[in-house]
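Input:
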Amino acid sequence: MKRRTFIKTSVLATATLYLPNFLKASEDVLKTAPNKKLIVIQLGGGNDGLNTVVPFNNDLYYKARPQISIPKNEVLPLDAMLGLHPMMKEIKDMYDDGFVALINNVGYPEPDRSHFRSMDIWQSASGSKEYIASGWLGRYHDLQNSISVNDTLLLEIDDSLSLASKGNSSNGLALKDSKKLFNEVSTPFIAQLGKNYNAAADHNHDNVSYLYQTLSSTISSAKYIYQTSKIFHSALTYPNHEFGHSMKTIAELIISGVNTSIYYVSLGSFDTHFNQKKRQAVLLKQLSETMSVFMKDMKANGKIDDVLAFTFSEFGRRVQENASEGTDHGTANQIFLFGGGLKQKGILNDAPNLSDLDNGDLKYTVDFRHIYATILRKWLNTNDNIILGNSFPSLSFI
Amino acid sequence: MELQDKIKHLFSRACFGKPLNTVSSKQDLKEVVHQIISTKSKYTSLQVVTLEDVEKMKAAMKTMPKEDAKEFRKALRDSQLQLNQLWFEQMVNSSNTLQEKMALFWHGHFACRSANPFFDQQYVEIVRKNALGNFGTLLKEISKSPSMLQFLNNQQNKKEHPNENFAREVMELFTLGRGNYTEQDVKETARAFTGFAFDKSAQFIFRKKQHDEGIKTIFGKSGNFDGDDVLEMLLEKKECAHFVATKIYRFFVNDKVNDKNVQELSAAFYHSGYNIQKLLHTLFTSNWFYDAENVGVKIKSPIELLVGYTRIIPFQFTDNKSNVFIQKSLGQELLNPPNVAGWQGGKNWIDSSSLLFRMRLPQAVYFEQEINFTPKADITEMYSFTKNTITDSYIKFAVKKIKTQFDWSEIILKFNASSDVVKDISNAIFINPPPQASLSAVRKTIENATSEAVIKNATISIMSLPEYQLC
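Output:
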């Protein structure tokens, strides 16, 4: 089977499971706007939302956190109720300039407090009681590739893929460093095998074909990205840590004009069971200073209106601090959105309600899948029903 | 297919591959199957830690600042690595390989994870000891193991606040599969399992006070059922035999299910009262198991791949971390399945990153070449960061050099460097050798080599081929 037919038929087989009138739906998919870029930033380990966006006029907050609360005079106020962690100065500036939106209390029904499980739920966009073996971005990749093949549509800036980037019939590409990947696929052995793709694919079993197809697409993707990425080198100085390097890579690929629509990147670990203050401060500073340089780069190169970035964590943390100057696994959390194309800016909904808790945890008011659906439909212009296997209402931030 | 090829196929599926240096003296396939299935070897328990050790560490950790408890957390984690390593060694060395292969299947079927290495140890004992025994017994022991009771929150399943986690998974993933029970069955089953718990000595205990003594209606039958009753009711359903037999078929035969073949397996499984050994006998002696469409078509799981290496060139890890680093990088770490649904398997093992890793791995294992790769951070390790650097938890398993001891002697004696060694090695390893185009890429890697290096390079290159990822 030819590679294109192979991908196409397998996606059709999967997609029709979700929606019987797939053909009608595919018309929507064709309208994809290729210039829009999405950057998904995973704050792994469970970031403490209450110390990130601080309810600095709420006594219940200070009561619940005698050791680790952020003093009111250190908070960077966004409005009369909420303010940012003091290490997020750059995000505060971007907020004031209208490039940031904030959605509070994002979560899902019957939340799971295990890192693994909750991350699975966020990455696969499943309900809390179902197991889906593919990621929401991977399924986007499946669907788009069923219409028009693009092996570099989805990049995860790492050595390996997370569940989020794995589809049912195709996968995103893991890439930490475009030169490193290019060198790996350029050894004579691998390069020669890559050329065998057609010979192997047309005469062999499905899985042999799949292996050679994967190899050949990895080689061509690695070459394409390495060569295209040479077009632009950022003039700005990105912070010297892994997240800074990752965002610099993303910026250079976007500005070079690589045909990738989605970038996936992680920062962590936020699992602050003890001595939270110090550790969270370091990580939030990394987030803030990096996003600032990144957005400046986008602005300077005329890309800021085409870029949407958002952060998420597998859960927030409990309202009450624990005995080790830290916090344990909780539930709902805020999401930050960055970009020039935001239709709504600022704080988009009510602050967490600390007087109405579920067994000591915040109650979610926005289902994260509504945010995914909104981004898929309105930003990536694709069919969110097929990808999420369900119909969720859209929000109006984009 | 030739008898020797059938034997090769049988070993590749049942025993992680057939050692290159052995020739089967058996002239009858049934005898070989019998030999594989009924190996009577002394069962080896895997012990790395005692309950007292774990309790002592946990008690100490409670009284000290969490940061100081780092050493203990590391010790607990090391016990797990050690258990992983011991089990891996059993897969490599045990004379009852089928038992270990089947235990690996059950590990994926009853996928479970625990932060307590003693619970892990009990769990591994259950899946290994019952691997070829009776599915009903295995199901009951797993359902009563501290590891699973904790993982699926049955410790918290009490009559005032039923927790449905275990009840749902025991039906959806362990016995019936979706569509064979209702939401009401889940709710009522959760009530039946109230009081199933474990005590301080890590033993199952039925807490009568927490058990809901009311009438439950499950699958249309009503009574004051408890967990044991429900497990019997699940086993009585033919759907259970069919669900488990289908998964076994996928694991041993083909990701694509042939309904007629599965029906045959499933009926035999049910009528034998869930005898696993008999089921495997039926499977391995069936004609369809050796059909061309089932030969050389399965993508090896990372564990199958790694254990399989030893059948070609014997090797052992000289440090536990190297083993776990590879398992993590390839996406299958023993005792650390992604979730209760286990490993997806099939094409899911392969993406751009894991395929390139697989193609570089033989060189890293046998030529001690560096491998520049960082697997995803293990979330359990996220607890154990150091004061100085926050990326510590992320580089923990970025092992630069894989530490192994290996033995080329057999393979060097077996092949002749002056003949067409690529063809010879390829024929020895594969049932359907790769096409000339692939073999010519291998030949390029021996162009400037002489004598032993020819054999070594050819073997490593063949083991790096995409075709080698299949069995």
